[in-house]
Amino acid sequence: MPWTGLRVGYLSAVPQSPINIHSIHAVNSPGLPALRVHYPSTLDLSLRYEGSGRTVLAPIPAGAAWVMLGAVRYDLVNFHFHTFSEHRLDGRQFPLEQHFVHSGPGGEALVIGLFLTPGGKGGTVQDQVLGVVPEESGPEVYVPQAALATSLPDDLSTFRYEGSLTTPPYGEPVSWLILRSHLSIQAASLHNLRLRFPAGDSRMMQPLNGRTVCYRDQSS
């Protein structure tokens, strides 16, 4: 995937995720294409369990939302949640991590990772969705007019690396973009998901094994 600028320093079919991102060791890479988000202001969604109840997932209608990296479009396929966060930033594990799963023109997987913390006042798509998380055996839940455009922070600075899916079978090379900025949601939203996953649903940390993590600043 030429846009990443990554160097994989070992032989492996699929480098694994998640990892602990050490910001001081991330290679500043202003030449990488900026992340541009094209998510609609509102979108009707549904919410269901995926992978034998391992993950709460919202599928996205085809062509309804996408991001751009340079001239390449990646369509949003779904978003889902993990508690506690799977990735760590400078050793810190956040209460929740949201994954926005995208597919490129050749089926390439690109996932944006967003750390979520309590303390928000509501009004985000995360609050809309997490407030109605169903019981595992319950039916799919309909979420009308979800505010998808509110789902990411204004600062789109990202740490980028090559890894894998974090759910079985842990395959399919994935280009990861982990947002530096986190988003605050209502404490009740976080609590509601924790009730469904009291033991958590995060994969254990994986070794970096010589991979390079790049940093693309978009703070200004």
TrEMBL record:
Reactions the enzyme catalyzes: hydrogencarbonate + H(+) = CO2 + H2O
EC number(s) on file: 4.2.1.1
Cross-referenced CDD domains: alpha_CA_prokaryotic_like
SMART domains from the UniProt entry: Carb_anhydrase (SM01057)
Alphabetical list of Gene3D superfamilies matching this protein: Alpha carbonic anhydrase
Domain Alpha-carbonic anhydrase residue range list: 1-217
Keyword Phosphoprotein: no
PROSITE patterns reported for this sequence: ALPHA_CA_2 (PS51144)
Keywords: Lyase, Metal-binding, Zinc
Protein family membership: Belongs to the alpha-carbonic anhydrase family.
Name used for this protein in its record: carbonic anhydrase
